[in-house]
Amino acid sequence: MYWINGIQEATVSASDRSFNYGDGGFTTIKTIDGKPLFWSLHVERMQACLQLLQISQPDWKQVQAWVEQAAIEKGLGGVKLHVSRGSGGRGYSPAGVTESLVTISEFGYPAHYKEWQQQGVELGVAEHKLGINPLLAGHKHNNRLEQVLLKADIEQQGHLDGVVLDLNDHIVETTMANLFWVKGKTLYTPSMEKCGVSGVIRRLVIQDAQMLGMKVLFGEFEMGHLLTADEVFMCNSLLGIAPVVKITHKSYPVGIITRDFQESINSA
Ligand SMILES: Cc1ncc(COP(=O)(O)O)c(C=O)c1O
């Protein structure tokens, strides 16, 4: 079901700028018993994205009420919150477009995620590379053609998901999640300064690790670094944290640090 600016409706105008140019931002939120999880972090990232794009901010209290109205009443579910700059402007020019459009949709919790969380996920490595784009890096904007191509690439290789590298062969994330790995007592994760989505769960993992006194290193890492990790995990808002048990031919055990993060974040 879809709601547009709070009204149950499933059609947007052909002049909508997100339809035409991907001009907007979105986020996907896990819901439990009708409540969105980590709402304030989703709002913060959306606000930063809209601010970068110079799109007017919706009334976030109102948006929260719409999200709660959309969320499945009982048990687990998901809500997608999508903001478009709205309709109008001339060509690419956004001048004069002031009324953003908020589209919300709900869906049931993906059935296979429980298995991914418990048994772990086997990843491939995408052949396509992510472009370097510091201007949009970290934001969950509505242009997702790279992820569409990457997902097709990974599926054609027979994998469910895969590690994604940038044009300089540095690890960025997977097609749908952020990546972490552990070596000794140190946690590693790629920097999101040149490309990639700076995830809500990534932020929580980093906060938790730093609170526990664990060293967290951000940077540009090549595959060789990841392949010698003791444990690897991936995370996004819907999945939470899931162990990565294989990357192409290299297997990893499900480690205790991964299980600890799962315990504190997945059960939140
Ligand atoms: C490409 C990509 N990277 C990372 C993430 C993780 O973001 P979040 O933790 O905010 O869900 C997502 C989420 O869908 C994603 O699509």
Explained architecture:
The radius of gyration is 19 Å and the shape is globular. The strands form two sheets. Strands 7, 8, 9, 10, 11, 12, 13, 14 and 15 form a nine-stranded mixed β-sheet that branches. A hairpin with a 2-residue loop joins β1 (2-4) and β2 (7-8). It has 268 residues and is an alpha+beta fold. It has helices spanning 17-21, 39-53, 60-70, 113-119, 145-156, 200-211, 223-227, 256-266, and strands at residues 2-4, 7-8, 24-32, 35-36, 76-84, 101-108, 121-125, 161-165, 171-174, 178-183, 186-190, 215-219, 231-236, 240-247, 250-251. Bound molecules: pyridoxal-5'-phosphate (PLP). Pyridoxal-5'-phosphate (PLP) is lined by residues 28, 147, 173, 176-178, 197, 199-202, 235-237.
Report how far the terminal alpha carbons are from each other. 26 Å
Shape: globular
Alpha-carbon Rg, integer: 19 Å
Overall average residue pLDDT: 97
Q: How much strand?
A: 25-35%
Which compounds are bound in this model? pyridoxal-5'-phosphate
Give a topology summary:
Blueprint: E1 2-4, E2 7-8, H1 17-21, E3 24-32, E4 35-36, H2 39-53, H3 60-70, E5 76-84, E6 101-108, H4 113-119, E7 121-125, H5 145-156, E8 161-165, E9 171-174, E10 178-183, E11 186-190, H6 200-211, E12 215-219, H7 223-227, E13 231-236, E14 240-247, E15 250-251, H8 256-266
Parallel strand pairs: 7-8, 7-14, 11-12
Antiparallel strand pairs: 1-2, 1-6, 3-4, 3-5, 5-6, 8-9, 10-11, 10-13, 13-14, 14-15
Bound molecules: pyridoxal-5'-phosphate.
Task: State the gist of this model.
By secondary structure, this protein is an alpha+beta fold. The protein is built from eight helices and 15 strands.
